[in-house]
Amino acid sequence: MSHIRGRFHKKTGELVTEYTASIPFDWRLYRHDIAGSIAHAKMLAKQGIISEKEAEVITEGLASIAEEIGQGKFQFKPELEDIHMNIEAQLIEKVGEVGGKLHTARSRNDQVALDLRLFTKEAISNTLVKLREFQQALISLAEANKGVVLPGYTHLQPAQPVLLAHHLLAYFEMLQRDIDRFSDCLKRTDVMPLGSGAIAGVAYNIDRDFLAHELGFSQLSQNSIDAVSDRDFVVEYEAAASLTMMHLSRLAEEIILWSSAEFNFAELDEAYTTGSSIMPQKKNPDVAELVRGKTGRVYGKLIALLVTMKALPLSYNRDMQEDKEGLFDTIDTLLSTLGVFAGMVKTLRVKAENTEQAVKRGYILATDLADYLVNKGEPFRTAHDIVARLVSYAMDKGKSFSELSLTEYKGFSPLFGEDVYSITVESSIAARDVIGGTAPRQVEQALATAKKIIGDFGRGN
Question: Would 109-148+162-205+222-357 and 360-458 be classified into the same CATH topology?
Answer without folding.
Answer: no
